[in-house]
Amino acid sequence: MTKSFGPLKLHVPEPAERPGREPDFSYLHLKPAGETRRPPVNALPSETSELAYGLVRVLDEAGNAVGPWQPTVSTDLLIRGLRAMLTLRVYDARMLTAQRQKKMSFYMQSLGEEAISVGHTLALEPDDMCFPTYRQQGILVARGASLVEMMCQLFSNSRDPIKGRQMPILHSHRKHGFFSLAGNLGTQFIQAVGWAMASAIKGGTQIASAWIGDGSTAEPDFHSALTFAAVYQAPVILNVVNNQWAISSFQFIAGGEATTFAARGVGNGIASLRVDGNDFLAVYAASKWAIERARRGLGPTLVEWITYRAGAHSTADDPTKYRPADDWARFPLGDPVRRLKQHLIAGGAWSDEQHERLQKEVEDEVIAAQKEAESYGTLATGPLPSAALMFDDVYAVMPEHLRRQRQQLGV
């Protein structure tokens, strides 16, 4: 006789954070700084299983660097990182305002996530290729890209380097190793693995760094990328930026409730780390570890960066509809800019006065760049790229059917 267990039910994950509630971050299972062990670079993927559930942290509550993951890094590099993070934050703030002023159609901030893109980029070589999402403009800032050129793309003006063919923030900078962005995320993960495989086939020295958000780990491209990376031991870093929210969907919907995203790497035979993404030193150290593995032919590494999306998903989103208003202020891993500043001050290499001067210098630099970019036009004022440009740069010799379409368009 079949025993009755009652009707079947499905589990629908729900975040503890909702408007009007107290933010609850206990689900993160955070560990103290310095507690997580640092395995040798040549460790087997299976030997990193514990790290996929732990948390690599270097900076303690007082701003001191502790534990086995402390990187060997100069003060100059730390200040360079701080400057890039501040530049990115000021840039984001001004571009958000510019969008509200209708100077561009759309914008996406990286507020609260600056340490990840900047710290990781400074650990890479300049010719390593990055396959980012739309929240890694910090890669371009850290690599010295022209702020004016970046803004011209946002404004879709006459100096737009992509000639009006992309939404704002979907940059493409070959000279800075910044692969062309697609709004449909997930594709860049498998592209990065393929690029890394090609680099190895050609006997090159460049590695690839791929980026994805927690929500996009539910895409088939993510799983295909892990399979190819593991099977062929591709020299690639697979970055999962877990900022807890995919638009309005909490990361549990993508599978982050029962396990970690880093654990998916271990399950595929890939060395994996779970890292405090708001700790610049932890970001730099973990990146260096993964990069060395790739360069030594030891295969891919998947890194889950734990952070928090401080603002809206985009200018088309209102997070107050699904999140508490003060959630970022209560996030236990803090503000990445403030934490790096605290570390430099604690070590006697920085001061509040120096920080204020740097803040003013960065603000002046961004304001000047914006003034120049707007002199070439904005979405509101024009001039805009000609519609005729949509036919260019596709074929070496334009096919006859496109020539006729261009004539029909009258451009």
Structural features, described:
- With 411 residues, the protein is of the alpha/beta class.
- It is 36% helix and 8% strand.
- The chain is built from twelve helices and seven strands.
Pairing-aware structural class of the strands and helices?
alpha/beta
| Rg of Cα set | 22 Å
| N- and C-termini, Cα separation | 78 Å
- Low-confidence segments, given as residue ranges, are none
Mean pLDDT, all residues: 95
Run of helices and strands: HHEHHHEHEEEHEHEHHHH
Keywords:
five-stranded parallel beta sheet; 411 residues; alpha/beta
Give a short synopsis of this structure.
The protein has twelve helices and seven strands.
SSE arrangement:
Elements: H1 75-100, H2 114-123, E1 129-131, H3 137-142, H4 147-155, H5 187-201, E2 208-213, H6 220-232, E3 236-242, E4 245-246, E5 249-250, H7 262-267, E6 271-276, H8 280-295, E7 301-306, H9 327-330, H10 336-346, H11 352-375, H12 400-409
Parallel strand pairs: 1-2, 2-3, 3-7, 6-7
Antiparallel strand pairs: 4-5
Helix pairs in contact: 1-2, 1-10, 1-11, 2-8, 4-11, 5-6
